[in-house]
Amino acid sequence: MTKTVLVTGASSGIGAATAILAAERGWDVAVHYNANRDGAEDIVKAVEAQDQRALLCSGDVATPDGIAQIFATLDSADWPLDALVNNAGVVDMTARLIDMDHARLRRMFDVNVIGAMLIAKEAVLRLTGRGGVIVNVTSAASRLGSGNQYVDYAASKAAMDIFTKGLSDEVAADGIRVMAVRPGLIETELHGKGGEPDRAQRLAHQVPMQRTGSALEVAQTILFLLSDEASYMTGSSIEVTGGR
To answer: Which of 48-52, 165-169, 188-192, 228-232 has the lowest mean pLDDT?
Structure first.
């Protein structure tokens, strides 16, 4: 029987790569986006090109109404859920803490932590009784700290690391596994959104493997965690960092 996965933030980057790879491996994919509808529609076409079902769903993960909208789309389409890739997130312009204001911090945690937790909640409600997998996409920034760049982003991802452990303990007996993936320097649009489009290449020399990673390499790890090959793995974080 074909399984279904919801990938949040699937219109570009790691989310897009994950949605396409999931389809290649036989998953039906609910493709979530907030603002980039064109990108999400392209991913829907890529999923359908693999002869898998795709469901386009939108919603702002920073708001309860936006999250309700995402799951209302799934429920109205009678779309059963087997897995969640909790990927949607934001970054901001590089800055020191002394230059950050309340609005920036509020947005960072509304999207990266509170929104992600509430999405996981909705997934748990639908996975309980049938089992499934949740993979939270966090970041190596959670242990590196990202000082002088975006300590707020790093702190939000650290919160998701420990949330992964706590939630995994809560739902293990229900047959739900919860894992996290921590990408390192990955070539995606995220760096440009932080005002440094060349950041990954500029810092590549700090990586023991002496190169940046690709969104596909992160997606491959996520799909492994979604698979039965990872059936005895829960409550931990996997590094995809080239050794950094």
So the answer is: 188-192
Q: What is the pTM of this model?
A: 0.94
Is the distance from CB of 91 to CB of 74 less than 8 angstroms?
A: no
Q: Which helix (H) or strand (E) holds 240?
A: strand 237-240
Question: What are the CA-CA distances from residue 193 to residues 28, 33, 197, 221 (Å)?
Answer: 30, 16, 7, 24
Question: What angle separates helix 215-226 from helix 13-24, to the nearest 10 degrees?
Answer: 50
Task: Please report which confidence band the pLDDT of residue 195 belongs to, taking 50, 70 and 90 as the band edges.
Answer: low
- The full set of domain ranges for the chain reads 4-231
31 contacts 6 by C-beta, under 8 angstroms: no
Q: Which residue has the higher pLDDT, 199 or 186?
A: 186
Whether the CB-CB separation of 87 and 9 falls below 8 Å is answered with yes
Rounded mean pLDDT of 142-169?
97
Range 49-77 average pLDDT: 98
Query: Among this protein's residues, is 153 annotated catalytic?
Result: yes
Residue 229 pLDDT exceeds 50: yes
Per DSSP, 242 falls in state T
Which of 81, 104, 78 shows the shortest CA–CA distance to 91?
104
Catalytic entry in 33, 150, 153, 232: 153
Tokens of 228: 């039965």
Two tokens, residue 141 = 């920034």
93 is written with which tokens? 């312009």
CATH fold of the domain at 4-231: Rossmann fold (3.40.50)
